[in-house]
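During the no-cost extension, the postdoctoral fellow (Dr. R.K.) reprocessed legacy sequence entries with the updated structure-token encoder. One reprocessed record is reproduced below for audit purposes.
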Amino acid sequence: MKELSIISHKLLQKGMKAAVLGTILENKIILSQNGDLAIDCGKIIKQHAPAFSGKGGGTPVKAQAQFPDSEKLNEFFRFVTGHLGN
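Re-encoded structure tokens follow.
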């Protein structure tokens, strides 16, 4: 997970507004944003991950969650990326 955090930080430094990265090796996801967006990463994880059998949390600018399997991780990944696109 540390690697995802480093990659996420670098992407935000390079100008991305938000990043959603996941690993099927650990069934974890990280959601981060540069602070300019009106989203709360921690709230998104806390409110929506349980619907996909996940758990986690974080701050308004960075949060992470863990899921029981890669299928649930992928479902949540699609949900979050769709949520950020709106």
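Helices lie at 2-13, 41-48, 70-84. The chain has a mean pLDDT of 94. The remaining legacy entries will be reprocessed before the final report is submitted.
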